[in-house]
Amino acid sequence: MSLIPFLKWAGGKRWLVSRHKDLFPVHYNVYFEPFLGAGSVYFYLNPKQAVLADINEELILTYIAIRDNWRELEELLALHQENHNKDYYYFIRGESPINQIERAARFIYLNRTCFNGIYRVNLKGKFNVPIGTKDKVILETDNFREASELLSRAQLHTSDFEQVIDASSTNDFVFADPPYTVRHNQNGFIKYNENLFSWNDQVRLADSLWRAKNRGVKILSTNANHQSVRELYEERGFNVHSISRYSSISASAEKRNQYEEIIVNANI
User: Does any domain span residue 186?
Assistant: First the structure.
């Protein structure tokens, strides 16, 4: 049985694993995910070996805390639940704990009670999302014990995506879900995304996946359904299809719209 992710994350792929299970390879060696986020695909696949990474240090520290000390983390979340109110939220938001477990509990608490589960920091690196309407800190779907057991099979790194992908070998599987928006897929796509995931990053990602493809790595990647992005991968010999959380996969231009995404794959 697949675990339900414990985080809400912008661009999360719960819909992908629930509607398009057939996209994922059945057999592979090591699973690589360089943009971990909420880990929807990782928790669904439940791989025997994994290398998981993200550039967000707080996120990776939270996964490490769950892997190494989930009981204490759960106790701290219960305290946050007991004390939660508007004043308490902003007090915790303004805190900068040093202890790893406290940092992880703070991260999960803010994720579950902030506005829309958004992760955003200001220029000083301080989390600045206002309080949201949800007040549940402990969820019925939480299973930190099993998450800890699964994460014990994984290497966890705070890292740029390129070195993670470059570490993959023949018959490994890379799932790459970079940051992108689907609401500006036409006018202004590149400009709008520049601060989210720059065009130079898009090119680096395409090149690193191309190198992995040539090593015999199995690849599945998601991205915005924008012509410039499609061309990056079509020129490098990838299979590219449009996909929507509301419809089936289609290679037909007539069935695409500005809110659809693309699936890029190779060797699967």
Answer: yes
Contact between 120 and 127 (Cβ < 8 Å): yes
The type of residue at 191 is K
Determine the Cα–Cα distance for residues 262 and 249; give it in Å rounded to an integer. Answer: 9
Range of the domain at 102: 59-147
| CATH number, position 121 | 1.10.1020.10
Q: Quick check: 112 pLDDT over 50?
A: yes
Residues 45-75 pLDDT 10s: 999 999 999 999 999 999 999 999 999 999 9
Whole-number Å distance between alpha carbons of 177 and 12: 9
Residue 10: per-residue pLDDT? 80
Residue 74 shares a structural domain with residue 166: no
Q: Parallel, antiparallel, or unpaired: how do β-strands 173-176 and 218-224 relate?
A: parallel
Note the pLDDT of residue 258. Answer: 46
Question: Whole-number mean pLDDT of the chain?
Answer: 90
